[in-house]
Amino acid sequence: MNLERILAVVRARNREFYRDKAGLGWNILMPLVIVLGFAFIFSGSQQDLFKVGLLGNSTRPAFLDTRHIQFIKQQSEPEAIEKVRYHRIDLLLDLRGAPRYWVNDLSPNGYVVERLLLQAHSQPSEDLIRELVSGRPVRYVDWVLPGVLALNVMFSSLWGVGWVIVRYRKNGVLRRLRATPLSAGEFLVAQIISRLLVVTGVTVLVFAGTNALLDFPMRGSYIALGLVFLSGAIALISIGLAVSARVRSEELADGLLNLMSWPMMILSGVWFSLEGTNVWAQRFAELLPLTHMVDAARRIMLDGAGLTDVTFEIGILLTIGLVLLTLSSRAFRWQ
After folding, report:
1. Does the domain made of 50-132 have the CATH classification 3.40.50?
2. pLDDT tens-digit readout, 262-287
3. What residues does 131 pair with on adjacent strands?
4. Of 35, 137, 142, 251, which one has the fewest beta carbons inside 10 Å?
C-alpha cells in the first residue's frame, strides 16, 4: 500500500469538495440553520412542565397564575377534548360559564394538574364540574409511529429520486438518454412510478413488522391510510424532481435536500406536538407536505378517521405533486 498515492487521492478529493462553493456553503450553513430553527420554535421562557387548554376567557381564576404551567387557547371543544384523551394537553379548563374541566384519569400529568386546580380554586371543589375523558391511553410509540412511517417515505422519495438523478447527470447517463425518443416528462413520470413501487413495498413491510412487534392501534380505514401515504409520496418525489431538474453537483443536491427535509422533520409533528410553540412556526408547518401527511395518517390510525375525513389533505398533497411535476418537466435539462 503506497502512502503517497493515498495522500494524492485525499488531496484531490478535498480540492474537489472545497472548489464546489455551493456544496461547501450548505455544509457550513446547515448546522447553523438547524440551531437557529430550534431556537425560534421554542423561543420564550423556560419550558413549562404541564400544558392546560383553555376554552373562553370570561373569567380569570387564580389557577391561571400557577407557575410552570403553559395555558393554551383552544378554538374547538371537541378537538380540545381529543387532545386530553391522547395526552397532548394535560387538562382542559372551560371559562365560558359554569366552571368545569376535563381530565384523563390515566394521565399522570393530568392528575398533578387537577390537584393544583382544586387547590387554587377559591370556592369549594364541588363547584367545579369534573368531566372524565375515557378511552385507551395512547403510548408515545403509538403516537409517533405514523410520523416515522411518513418520515421513511420522505427520505426514500427525496434521496431516491433527487440525488440519483443528479448523479445520472454528472455521470453522463442523462446525456445518453437524451439521444433516445424519451421526453423529459416521460422520464420524470417513470421516476415517480418506479419510486412509488419501492416506497409502497417498504412502507407495507415496515407497517406489518412494527404491528407484529408493538401491536399499535389502527382504528381507521386502511384504504384511506394507503391513499394518504401514496399522495404524500407523490408530493415528496415531485420535490426531489424539482431539486434535481437543473442541479449538476451531488454535494449541492445533498445540501438542498437537507434544506428541504430538516424543516419538515422538525416542524411536521413527527416527534412532538407543536401545541404551544411559536405561532409562526405552526403557520409555517402548515405549508409543509409532510405535516399534512403525518396529521392525516395520525387521525386515521388513532382517531378512526375515514377517507372523507382526510380528503382535504390528500387533495393538497396531490396538488403539490402535480404543480411540481409540471414545473420540473419544463425546467429539466439532460446535461
Report:
1. no
2. 888 888 877 777 766 667 877 888 88
3. 102
4. 35
